[in-house]
Task: inverse folding
């Protein structure tokens, strides 16, 4: 029995981890997800380092192919040992984070413990999964002697982390689409200055939705796929519909909790809250899996901006896109209406038949509604809160006054916690801190000083105020710009094929 099934048809073909990450599309248009969530006593893993904990998570959730099944896995991977070696190698990349022994440290403000997930190369939490993910993916591709084209559309953080992850990896090419003018300057520089030969970055004349839907069309474009095939490329994606991302995002929630036990803040078994600024729900899904396998989490609090479709869903059971249009905010990574990973929650709580029914309704009527009982079940695991840009800025300002600098996404999560605090008795919580302030320096500096500044000025202003900036971010401003091309979404297909062909010679 293999660990992964489709969210929309669990009795169709099953998958192992390798197949699920190479070919993320599951039967019936579903997503690959874990069939079973075993109960695990995580207190047994208190003494492990981060990479050892990651392996323990993979083994316990059966993500890692067990030795005994090695021979039945020949289609996907040469053998279980090779996969274990690839994983060991990939996990070494965490040693490049700020603290080689702890990729995700805590910062305490009262009973709020910020789990800082941004100490990797591109300064956002996407590195927590994408750093090892690229290395694993490439090693599998090489093992199978296959070439992959990875497509990614980004609103700002996924792009840089994906490029960093796959740069110079064998058997891989990456095309990254970003909305020209729609990201912060730092985010854009992180992409367009990347010198690796196997990547191509296009600015899109349009918004993130345009880039995203152009990409989705390509995934189903027969002519495009055949053309890639004739150049010996298969297509894959690296966003959080890919379970490879989710797998690594389960680990740090457990790590955060165990750190609290180790430093004496809590006793193992004490329930705490987990607060997550959410967009595509990949980070929150990791927390959900951790909770379902026994990590003592009271509730997962989903924090959103003005695009508050997740708040409405968790509070009312109604997921309704039909009346909404996407609004730009200071927390662009959460500007999203179709939150892909909610589908995996629906599967875990209500099963494949109901998930398919709900998602069909979303496709046909841009809406679905849970029953009263289903909503009650959802609310056993989740709470939700949202706030607008003005409130976000005031949270950044008041937190700065306490001597701590947070980015707009983290600020919304902290706001959700403070709101909860006002109603409960100062509960202990892990706040997922998803980006370093430096990626959103103009909004952070404006929150604190009321001045409108560009990226360079804002970074200087923040450093005057005692902020530390990572050398990798500062260096960006002096790097040559390599990817200058800005295209219309109608030209994407042609330009990608042209690049693949020209590179062959
Ligand atoms: C991607 C991102 C999020 C949203 O995470 P999801 O897993 O998509 O819910 C929040 N904050 C930042 C800074 C991000 O880059």
Result:
């Amino acid at each position: 029995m293999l660990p992964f099934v489709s969210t929309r048809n669990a009795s169709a073909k099953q998958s192992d981890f390798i197949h699920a990450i190479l070919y993320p599309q599951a039967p019936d248009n579903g997503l690959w997800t874990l069939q079973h969530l075993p109960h695990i006593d995580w207190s047994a893993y208190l003494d492990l380092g981060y990479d050892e904990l990651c392996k323990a998570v993979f083994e316990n959730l059966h993500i890692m192919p067990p030795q005994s099944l090695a021979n039945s896995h020949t289609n996907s991977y040469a053998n279980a040992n090779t996969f274990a070696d690839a994983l060991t190698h990939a996990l070494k990349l965490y040693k490049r984070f700020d603290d080689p022994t702890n990729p995700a440290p805590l910062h305490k403000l009262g009973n709020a413990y910020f789990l800082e997930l941004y100490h990797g190369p591109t300064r956002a939490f996407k590195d927590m999964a994408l750093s090892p993910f690229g290395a694993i993916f490439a090693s599998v591709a090489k093992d199978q002697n296959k070439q992959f084209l990875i497509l990614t559309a980004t609103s700002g953080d996924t792009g840089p982390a994906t490029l960093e992850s796959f740069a110079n990896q064998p058997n891989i090419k990456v095309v990254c689409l970003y909305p020209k003018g729609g990201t912060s300057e730092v985010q854009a520089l992180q992409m367009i200055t990347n010198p690796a030969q196997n990547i191509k970055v296009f600015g899109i004349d349009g918004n993130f939705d345009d880039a995203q839907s152009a990409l989705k069309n390509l995934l189903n474009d027969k002519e495009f796929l055949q053309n890639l095939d004739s150049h010996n490329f298969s297509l894959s994606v690296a966003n959080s519909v890919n379970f490879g991302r989710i797998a690594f995002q389960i680990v740090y929630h457990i790590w955060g909790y165990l750190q609290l036990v180790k430093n004496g803040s809590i006793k193992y078994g004490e329930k705490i809250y987990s607060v997550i600024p959410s967009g595509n729900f990949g980070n929150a899904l990791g927390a959900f899996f951790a909770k379902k396998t026994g990590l003592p989490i009271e509730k997962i609090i989903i924090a959103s901006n003005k695009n508050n479709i997740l708040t409405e869903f968790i509070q009312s059971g109604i997921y309704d896109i039909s009346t909404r249009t996407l609004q730009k905010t200071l927390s662009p990574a959460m500007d999203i209406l179709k939150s892909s990973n909610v589908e995996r929650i629906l599967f875990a709580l209500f099963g494949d038949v109901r998930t398919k029914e709900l998602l069909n309704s979303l496709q046909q009527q841009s809406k679905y509604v849970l029953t009263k009982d289903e909503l009650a079940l959802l609310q056993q695991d989740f709470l939700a809160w949202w706030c607008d840009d003005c409130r976000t800025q005031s949270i950044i300002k008041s937190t700065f006054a306490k001597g701590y600098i947070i980015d707009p996404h983290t600020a919304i999560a902290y706001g959700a916690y403070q709101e909860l605090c006002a109603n409960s008795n100062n509960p202990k919580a892990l706040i997922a801190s998803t980006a370093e302030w430096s990626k959103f320096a103009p909004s952070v500096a404006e929150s604190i000083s009321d001045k409108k500044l560009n990226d360079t000025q804002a970074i200087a202003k923040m450093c005057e105020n005692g902020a530390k900036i990572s050398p990798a971010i500062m260096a960006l401003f002096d790097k040559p710009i390599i990817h200058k091309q800005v295209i219309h979404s109608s030209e994407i297909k042609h330009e990608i094929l042209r690049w693949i062909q020209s590179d062959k010679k």
In short: The pocket of pyridoxal-5'-phosphate is lined by residues 124-126, 157, 240, 277-284, 333-334, 409, 434-435 (CB under 6 Å). The domain at 126-239+481-504 is CATH 3.40.50.1100 (Rossmann fold).
